[in-house]
Amino acid sequence: MKNLYQFCLLVLLVIVCSPYSLAEQKKVFGEYEVHYIGLTTNYLSKEVAKQYGIKRSRSLGYVSISILKEGVEQAEDATVSGTMANLFGQYKTLSFRRIQEGKAIYFISTFSVDETENYRFAIDIDPMASSKDITLNFEQKFYGES
Model's pTM, two decimal places? Predict the structure, then answer.
């Protein structure tokens, strides 16, 4: 539970104290809220990175997705897959890992990025409790530490 608290605190600090704070990082699809964040893994604390087997690097991107059903304070389980593309249209397929800590469920993926390049993401989400598929589209610029 302590690690979940550290992870949530880290994500909150990154959102508030970085260029990522310009976007809300949440989209609503009918009865579902999809929360997401993309950043380079060097922003993760050493402890969190070690716990989840993630290398910390300015050239390694990280995306975290969580799905909540409206009015319910519990994460929704789902199947998550997706792609990312740079502005030249070069695509990469993303592999997501499911992480559960207590009632929290996250889907994370790591991938190579070029610092300060924009990427377009198309994340396909299939909530287990619904027959309706969701496609989350967003664009993210990745920054390394100065």
Answer: 0.79
